[in-house]
Design a protein that fits this description.
Arc Repressor Mutant, subunit A; single chain; four-stranded parallel beta sheet; WH-like_DNA-bd_sf; 16% strand; DNA binding; globular; 15 helices; DNA-binding transcription factor activity; Rossmann fold; 329 residues
């Protein structure tokens, strides 16, 4: 008998939700997907089901699945493309997940076998184990819960990756546009974060938004590699140079760093990947286009001879600030 598409998906994505568990359905789904990716049941390049399909399969709200996918994207585990769907990434984040989960899988498999042999109920054991870790909490240093608050227009992926590099901690990303518009989301972010990291151009607004939170506010900044600035400074007067980021204000920030370096002989233009018409004009008219790391691969594929990477560097003072607020890492 031939399986229909729904049956096939049901067998491939054997996820379950249990409202009786002591952690949320959102966490249940996210962690199950991370397990399936981490141990190779879902591989880099595989597509996850559409949010509405998985929601119907599990009997939950579509927004819950969308939230899981967005958080997996922010952790670097999947990519989300409009019109295409959610795809497991092939990158360092997924490789690291596999490095973590495979030995955990072996340990858990042995533990479950031993529990079964001793007729110990699994849910009871693991619930008790979670409680037991609380008793050990005083022996372990508390790790900082890092929240990056940045707008969608800027290269938030660069800042997230740099924070991870410096602190060795996972970083949750929260977009300024979202917390600005949603009090429940702001309240959740405030309750989660022990350290809120943002950039200089958003510092005042973030301080105001999180004024009732006990989280430390850390403001970081980025600069540009000197070699790239020198290359731009050597351009002929009137050279048309495009600066492209995820959004227009990100491109404007890139151009402003060049202007602040005293480079004024070029004719700059700025746009974002979310402006297809303006982007097409920039690619057609500019003599050179500088792209942030977040958009470089796509632009280089479109105009390989014209597009160059705009290499950002985290400021040394920002590295020091991040290390100071994460002493346990």
């Amino acid at each position: 008998m031939t399986m229909n598409r729904g049956e096939a998906m049901s067998r491939e994505f054997m996820l379950k939700v249990d409202p009786q568990l002591t952690f949320s359905v959102h966490v249940q789904i996210k962690e199950q997907l991370k397990w399936m990716i981490g141990i190779g049941r879902i591989k880099p390049g595989d597509m996850l089901p559409a949010a509405n399909q998985l929601a119907d399969l599990l009997g939950i709200n579509r927004n819950t699945v969308n939230g899981v996918y967005i958080q997996l994207r922010d952790e670097g585990i999947v990519t989300i493309q409009k019109g295409r769907g959610t795809q497991v990434a092939s990158n360092q984040a997924v490789a690291k997940l596999s490095e973590q989960r495979l030995p955990m899988h072996d340990l858990l498999t042995r533990t479950i076998d031993e529990l079964t042999a001793n007729h110990i109920e699994l849910h009871e054991f693991f619930t008790a184990s979670l409680a037991y870790t609380l008793l050990q909490g005083s022996k372990l240093p508390e790790r900082s819960r890092l929240l990056l608050v940045e707008c969608r227009d800027h290269d938030h992926l660069f800042y997230r990756d740099e924070i991870r590099r410096v602190t060795g901690s996972e970083v949750r990303t929260c977009f300024l546009e979202d917390v600005r518009a949603s009090e429940p989301l702001l309240a959740e972010a405030s309750a989660y974060a022990s350290v809120v990291v943002t950039t200089l151009n958003h510092a005042d607004e973030v301080r105001q938004l999180f004024r009732g939170s006990e989280a430390k506010i850390v403001v970081i900044g980025a600069t540009v590699e000197t070699a790239s600035l020198l290359a731009i400074a050597r351009m002929e007067p009137g050279t048309k140079v495009g600066f492209v980021c995820l959004g227009r204000s990100g491109g404007q920030w890139m151009a402003s760093r060049v202007a602040e370096a005293g480079i004024t002989q070029i004719t700059p233009s700025c746009c974002g990947m979310n402006e297809p018409d303006e982007l097409a004009r920039t690619l057609a008219q500019a003599d050179r286009v500088y792209a942030s790391a977040a958009v470089y691969d796509k632009l280089a594929a479109m105009q390989p001879d014209k597009v160059a990477l705009y290499p950002m560097l985290l400021e040394k003072s920002s590295e020091s600030l991040l290390r100071d607020v994460t002493p346990s890492v």
